Amino acid sequence: MTAFHIVSQGFQSVARAAQLLEMFTVERPALSLGEITERLEVSKPTAHRYATALRDAGLVRQADGAYTLGPRVVELASAALAGLEVIEVAGPHLARLGAETSQSAVLSVWDGEAPVVVRVHDAAAGRIVRIVVATGSRLPTASAQGIVFRAHMDRDDPDPALAAARRDRLAYFPDVVEGIAALASPVLRGEEIVATIAVVGTSAAIARSPRAVMSRTLVAAADALSRELGHNDSGVGE
């Protein structure tokens, strides 16, 4: 069996799983294995295999001979809504942060593998050097934003850099490009990280110490956005 055939099979399985999930509607919240088999146009053992895999992942559940959407779907929907909401409400926070620090303020979300820039406030007006951060840019996992995401997605990871990011609610990265640095802080909803806010500027301008005024200003901006999204200091979303 060729590698291409193996990959093709993997894509087909994902497509089938997505097709199965799309069968559930408000009008038809429960389906029998027979109905799933008929709609997928596969054998009953194959339909059972897909349904079992989704059940094991928490995406569907089985009771009284019928399948319904599982609790994991609700979690994923909440995460998707949070991601959309944070982009909408972050604007004033980014503008305020840019004005207070005189640096570009950047909002990033996690795309499943790495941070992606989704909103930018350019505070470069009147400056000789302008740093352009493009929305849609995919950032390295070693970036300040990547460190913050990794620190909060795996709180048991003992890596010193991740532990420091959790403790200080900050991560510093000196090598965005030569002479350009970034400082990032988490945006939280309950115990879940939904985004990062960062300031990006010249290495001379971006604070490295968590006790610096810029660092405290950044954390305060991230905390304010977190509160607007329903986060509180107890770590439980309102």
Summarize the structure.
The chain has seven helices and eight strands; from the N terminus they run αβααββαββααβββα.
Q: Which residues form runs of ≥5 with pLDDT under 50?
A: 1-8, 234-238
Question: How many individual domains?
Answer: 2
Largest beta sheet, briefly?
Answer: 5 strands, antiparallel
The helix content is 40-55%
Tell me which CATH architecture of the largest domain applies here: 2-Layer Sandwich
What is the averaged pLDDT score?
A: 86
Name of the CATH superfamily of the largest domain:
GAF domain
Listing every helix as H and every strand as E from the N terminus to the C terminus, the arrangement reads HEHHEEHEEHHEEEH
Give your account of this protein's structure.
This protein has helices spanning 3-22, 33-40, 44-56, 71-101, 144-153, 160-168, 213-228; strands at 30-32, 60-63, 66-69, 104-110, 115-121, 171-177, 180-189, 192-202. By secondary structure, the protein is an alpha+beta fold. The protein has a 5-stranded antiparallel beta sheet with strand order 5-4-8-7-6. Strands 1-3-2 form a 3-stranded antiparallel beta sheet.
